[in-house]
Fold this sequence. Notes:
The structure is a single chain. The protein is an alpha/beta fold. The protein has helices spanning 10-21, 33-40, 51-60, 70-76, 97-109, 126-141, 161-166, 178-188, 203-234, 238-246, 267-280, 286-298, 301-309, 337-347, 360-367, 379-383, 403-409, 424-429, and strands spanning 2-6, 25-29, 64-67, 79-82, 114-118, 147-151, 171-174, 198-201, 318-322, 351-355, 373-375, 388-391, 414-417, 433-435. The strands form 3 sheets. It has a 6-stranded parallel β-sheet with strand order 3-2-1-4-5-6, with helices on both faces. It has a 6-stranded parallel β-sheet with strand order 11-10-9-12-13-14. α5 packs parallel to α6 (126-141), α9 (203-234) crosses α11 (267-280) and α11 (267-280) packs antiparallel against α12. The longest helix is centred in the middle third of the chain and has 32 residues, at 203-234. The radius of gyration is 24 Å and the shape is elongated.
Amino acid sequence: MKVTVFGTGYVGLVTGTCLAEMGNQVVCVDIDSAKVDGLNKGQIPIFEPGLTPMVVQNHQEGRLQFTTDAESAVAHGEIIFIAVGTPPDEDGSADLQYVLAVAGTIGRYLGHYAVVVNKSTVPVGTADRVQATISDALARRGAGTEFDVVSNPEFLKEGDAVKDCMRPDRIVIGAKSAKALEVLKKLYAPFNRNHDRIVAMDVRSAELTKYAANAMLATKISFMNEMANIAERVGADIEMVRHGIGSDPRIGYSFIYPGAGYGGSCFPKDVQALERTARQYGYEARILAAVEAVNDRQKDKLFELISRHFSGELQGKTIAVWGLAFKPNTDDMRAASSRNLLASLWNAGAKVQAFDPEAMHEAERIFGQRDDLMLVGTANAALQNADALVVVTEWKNFRSPDFTQLKQQLSAAVVFDGRNIYDPETVEQAGLAYYGIGRGRSIVRAD
Length: 447
């Protein structure tokens, strides 16, 4: 099938590439000419496991093209995806200017029936606005071209996006046109062979489904962080609690890992946007507001533990930081907990030596050159002349360090485990003080 994708970010690039992998003819459009030139040369602007070889191969074999020419791209597509960003507006609601700009572009050039697919995460009612924007542009041209707008939200996890796209657990399609639904079913048939993963519904329900899914997952994380803070105060170990509740199949183990707060491009803005949408409709979404507030507070937790250990005296201290991305297997630092931590350490007069397997260039772009920040090439280099180690991102290569060696390298002999990836007794037996999230022993220093 002939597919056009507007936007070459995480969602657009992964979606377009996976559709090309299944034999479709895909054209990806972006207004950033440098980005498009790079993609045509095999330079992938994001880190996503498995994505680069798929992009390169499908581009070489002619199934995947990149262009800035919106007119030719619209002419190409019988299915046109809108996969551009919806950043938070000043009031926290989703900013739809890029989505509606693409809709206007489609209406300006559309000359044949097409199914326009909202892939971007958008508030309820956006499909109606896209429909109206395209219709207005067609009317100004005096064109009577037929088209349908459907909602097909993405459920891609950064770090697992290719796998999620190629083997989806569900394919939500919101459509009021039977014709459009059949077109999408045909497109997704190769992804839907083992059992029917398509969940068809009305457009507004599909739009809300995406927000509801992210809000539920974010709620589980904030709930566990709330429990972790209680556990710390009462002397319980949240990891024991996690095993105790996760064994209940009604709860399960997914997304009940306490930590330093969630980040990334989805959860923070989507929870906020849904809460603002509810407010616009006269409803106070108290749980969503609490989820957001708990997460904001949790991002200060690591600094709180560090400051407590050093009795607030951080001036001149050097802190090694392992992990800058908001999660493993990505270079994305949007709303990452590391950003809050570094800002607080700098304000307290500490210096930071940081390493992340993939996010170093992004960190350099965000922070620039600073006297109180050293971005180093290895995890071990971050430890040189450091007083303490803070683990912010649970990359696999951080999971089994030599704690005896850490004791020798760290002047203050202390580890702050922001993701609870270490066994406290193992760390303490090596002579290090250990602080985790929600582990009652974190109140007491090791000898």
